[in-house]
C-alpha cells in the first residue's frame, strides 16, 4: 500500500486514519485517486485538499467509525465503493459486534484498495445477481445452533464474525495447523474464488488455468474430505504455496491469488518507504533488493519475486529479533512461482481491459 500524508501539514498517515493527529483535519479516502486526503468542510459536503475540484460526502458507514471512504457529493449512492458490497453487517447493539465489524471493515477496505488499483471488475448485487457481496455473520447464541463458516458461494463471501476476535482466530489457527491466519488473508483468499468465476470460468481462461492448477471438475466435497482425513502430500512444498492449496484446484488458485495480493501490496509499502535490502554478509547479491517501482504496474513477475524473496527474508529476520513469528512463513517453489505468474498475467490482462 502507498504511504499517505496530510496535504495540510505534511503529517504521515495510516490508511485507516480518520483525522490527522497533527492538524486535526478530518481525513477521507478518494478511491478514484487512491489518495487519503485532508478534508475541509463546505456546507453539507467536504472539499478534499488532494483533489479540490469536486465536493465529497462520507460513506454512511462513517457514522459507525468503520469507514473513511468518500463518494462524490452529488452521487445518488449512500455507501462508498467498498461498503456497497455489504449484504449483511453485524447488529452493533450486541456485545463486541461493533468492534469486530470495525476490524473486518479495516481488512476489507485494504482488500478493495488493491482490487481498485488493479481495475478489476467489481459488480455488486444491485448490478449483477452474482456480483460480489459480503455477509458478516455471528454464530447462533444457542450452544447447539449452527456455526458460521467462512467461505464463498457464487459471489457471496461469508466471513464468520468470530474471526475478528484475535484469541478465537489464533485458537482456530493452531487447531487447523496453519502458519498464518488473518482477516486480510481471509478476504484475499475468498475473493480469489470470486475472481476464478469471473476471470477464469467466465473469461475464457479455463483450459489455461487447468494446465497450471489441475482439473477443477474433481469433486470438491470429496477432495475436502480427503484433505482433512489424510492431510497434504509429503512433497506439497515442491508444488504448492500452502498445505491447504493441495485440497483442490479451486483452493490452489485462491491461495495463490491471496499470496499474489500479499506480495504486491507489501512490496508497494516497501517501495513507499524507500526500502532497500542489501545484507552485508551477502557477497553474491542474491539477497539484494531495490524496490523503487510500482509493483501494481510491474509487467514482469520475475522482478516482483526477485525482490520479494530478499524482503521476506529481511522482515522475517526482524520479526524473529522481536520474538515474533515469521511475517511470511512460506517457501515459494518454482512451481508455486509459476502459479503466481499465472495470477499476475490474469490480473494484468483483465485490469488493463477494465482500466
UniProtKB/TrEMBL annotation:
InterPro entries the UniProt entry points to: UCP012641, Zinc-ribbon_6_bact
A Pfam entry, by short name: Zn_ribbon_DZR_6
Domain Zinc-ribbon intervals: 3-92
Organism: Muricoccus roseus
Gene3D superfamilies hit by this protein: 3.40.390.70
Domain of life per record: Bacteria
Protein name listed in UniProt: Zinc-ribbon domain-containing protein
Amino acid at each position: 500500500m502507498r504511504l499517505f500524508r496530510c496535504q495540510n501539514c505534511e503529517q504521515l498517515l495510516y490508511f485507516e486514519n480518520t483525522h490527522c493527529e497533527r492538524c486535526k483535519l478530518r481525513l477521507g479516502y478518494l478511491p478514484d485517486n487512491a489518495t487519503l486526503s485532508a478534508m475541509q468542510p463546505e456546507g453539507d459536503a467536504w472539499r478534499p485538499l488532494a483533489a479540490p475540484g469536486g465536493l465529497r460526502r462520507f460513506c454512511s458507514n462513517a457514522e459507525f467509525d468503520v469507514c473513511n471512504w468518500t463518494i462524490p457529493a452529488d452521487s445518488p449512492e449512500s455507501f462508498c465503493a467498498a461498503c456497497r458490497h455489504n449484504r449483511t453487517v453485524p447488529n452493533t447493539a450486541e456485545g463486541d459486534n461493533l468492534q469486530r465489524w470495525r476490524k473486518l471493515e479495516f481488512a476489507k477496505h485494504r482488500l478493495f484498495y488493491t482490487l481498485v488499483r488493479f481495475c478489476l471488475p467489481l459488480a455488486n448485487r444491485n448490478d449483477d445477481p452474482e456480483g460480489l457481496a459480503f455477509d458478516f455473520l455471528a454464530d447462533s447464541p444457542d450452544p447447539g445452533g449452527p456455526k458460521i463458516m467462512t467461505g464463498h458461494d457464487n459471489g457471496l463471501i461469508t466471513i464468520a464474525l468470530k474471526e475478528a476476535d484475535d484469541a478465537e482466530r489464533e485458537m482456530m489457527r493452531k487447531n487447523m495447523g496453519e502458519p498464518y491466519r488473518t482477516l486480510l488473508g481471509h478476504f484475499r483468499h475468498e475473493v480469489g474464488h470470486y475472481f476464478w468465476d469471473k476471470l477464469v470460468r467466465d473469461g475464457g481462461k479455463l483450459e489455461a488455468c487447468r494446465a497450471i492448477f489441475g482439473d477443477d471438475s474433481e469433486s470438491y466435497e470429496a477432495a475436502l474430505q480427503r484433505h482433512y482425513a489424510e492431510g497434504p502430500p509429503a512433497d506439497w512444498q515442491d508444488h504448492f504455496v500452502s498445505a491447504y492449496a493441495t485440497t483442490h484446484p479451486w483452493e490452489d488458485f485462491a491461495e495463490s491469488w491471496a499470496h499474489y495480493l500479499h506480495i504486491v501490496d507489501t512490496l508497494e509499502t516497501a517501495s513507499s518507504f524507500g526500502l532497500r535490502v542489501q545484507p552485508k554478509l551477502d557477497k553474491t547479491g542474491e539477497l539484494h533488493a531495490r524496490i523503487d517501482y510500482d509493483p501494481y504496474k510491474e509487467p514482469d513477475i520475475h522482478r516482483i519475486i526477485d525482490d520479494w524473496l530478499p524482503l521476506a527474508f529481511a522482515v522475517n529476520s526482524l520479526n524473529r529479533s522481536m520474538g515474533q513469528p515469521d511475517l511470511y512463513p512460506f517457501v515459494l517453489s518454482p512451481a508455486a512461482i509459476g502459479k503466481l505468474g499465472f495470477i499476475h498475467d490474469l490480473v494484468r490482462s483483465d485490469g488493463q481491459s477494465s482500466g
